[in-house]
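Tokens for chain A. Residues wanted.
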């Protein structure tokens, strides 16, 4: 017995763990048969054979299609082959995951044999699965749905950014080709794309920063004002200030679009006309952008106001009383007591406001569809990146450029959100636990 244990410790090929691992590598289920786990071996064997029989042809064609995107025009559809190839990769990853799990399972059972542990009975195996594997089994349907509903469209979009899929080259009449980073290069080298991209990207940043900052500042100012002890009828005032949030945003935007109409809108006709002023709100890019910023400030401040109002109620009053004893001014109490509490509790949500306005498609499209037109550009004067992507996709069919711009948008938001979240006090406090 001592010699047997010594031989096992040497780690040769005759060691059960290595034999079981090798057999599982050769074909799933063989390692389990070697470990005398017959039922488990049959399960892995049936799963593996079923997977190969049902998916082999599909995966074979899919992998060929994603590499070539077709070889015969009007017979092969490049988009369908690309989609089938992506699905094949996902299915193949699931198959590889089962294959790796089979190897680890066989090796783990073999190690248990080396340590002299008895083989578990069927009931013990079911109990072990329930205690350890049941949660994973229950989340598996949700994971599969997530992969095919969220991950697959994202992968498809990423793939299109590296093809030549546009209105002049579309299947099945033409075959698509992989073009590498040419679409991204076109955004910064070809004049019409370069001018449009930098103009729209700059306006998107300006729009995000100014519109979001104004709604935050206005919401903070009103929250501090209503929270003041000298203010009466607080509940009524809060109700009135939150009313714009209760109205659906698209309804408010359409109403504002009519109000800002330079011909029959109430702002020009009933207000500014008394001052002999007529502002081209919809035909001049500068005034259209100004109107959009004002509308977004109106639409966004109620949420920030409600957020800050709730946090202000939780600030300990004894801190203000201690500051009064020390002779602190209103500004000092605001700077050292109020703002730290507000930012600690709301910083992540405020960051999300910036990210939301960066992709705020509704207000841009519903107000004036990104117009007015700008000479030498294929985007409107008020288009932000997301509305430009919409036009490229549904109006001009430049799917490859739309996908490339979408990737850039995702990178900008991800990088911005990551670094901002890492610097917020709330995020750092959470990391301690």
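Reply:
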């Amino acid at each position: 017995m001592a010699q047997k244990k010594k031989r096992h410790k040497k780690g040769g090929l005759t060691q059960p763990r290595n034999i079981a691992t090798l057999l599982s590598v050769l074909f799933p289920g063989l390692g389990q048969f070697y470990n005398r786990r017959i039922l488990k071996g049959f399960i892995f064997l049936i799963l593996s054979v079923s997977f190969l029989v049902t998916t082999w042809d599909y995966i074979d064609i899919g992998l060929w299609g994603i590499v070539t995107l077709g070889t015969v025009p009007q017979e092969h559809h490049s988009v369908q082959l690309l989609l089938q190839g992506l699905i094949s990769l996902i299915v193949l990853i699931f198959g590889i995951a089962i294959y790796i799990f089979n190897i680890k399972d066989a090796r783990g059972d073999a190690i248990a044999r080396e340590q002299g542990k008895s083989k578990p009975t069927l009931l013990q195996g079911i109990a072990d699965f329930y205690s350890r594997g049941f949660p994973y089994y229950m989340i598996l349907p949700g994971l599969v749905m997530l992969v095919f509903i969220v991950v697959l469209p994202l992968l498809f979009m990423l793939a299109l950014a590296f093809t030549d899929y546009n209105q002049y080259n579309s299947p099945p009449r033409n075959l698509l080709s992989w073009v590498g980073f040419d679409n991204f290069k076109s955004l910064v080298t070809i004049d019409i794309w370069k001018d449009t991209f930098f103009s729209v990207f700059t306006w998107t940043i300006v729009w995000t920063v100014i519109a979001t900052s104004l709604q935050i500042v206005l919401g903070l100012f009103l929250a501090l004002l209503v929270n003041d002890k000298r203010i009466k009828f607080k509940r009524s005032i809060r109700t009135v200030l939150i009313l714009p949030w209760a109205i659906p945003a698209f309804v408010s935007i359409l109403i504002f679009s009519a109000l800002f109409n330079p011909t029959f809108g109430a702002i020009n006709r009933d207000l500014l006309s008394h001052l002999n002023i007529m502002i081209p709100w919809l035909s001049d890019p500068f005034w259209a952008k100004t109107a959009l910023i004002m509308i977004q400030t109106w639409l966004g401040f109620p949420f920030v106001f409600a957020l800050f109002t709730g946090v202000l109620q939780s600030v300990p009053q004894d801190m203000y009383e201690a500051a009064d004893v020390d002779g602190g001014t209103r500004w000092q109490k605001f700077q050292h007591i109020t703002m730290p509490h507000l930012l600690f509790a709301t910083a992540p949500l405020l960051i999300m406001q910036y990210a939301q306005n960066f992709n705020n498609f509704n207000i841009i499209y519903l107000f004036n569809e990104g117009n007015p037109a700008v000479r030498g550009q294929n985007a409107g004067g008020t288009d932000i990146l997301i509305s430009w992507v919409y036009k490229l996709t549904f109006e001009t069919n430049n799917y490859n450029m739309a996908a490339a711009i979408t990737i850039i948008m995702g990178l900008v938001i991800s990088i911005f959100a990551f670094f901002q979240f890492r610097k917020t006090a709330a995020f750092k406090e959470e990391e301690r636990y």
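Residues 122-160 form the longest helix (39 residues). DSSP finds 18 helices and no strands in the chain.
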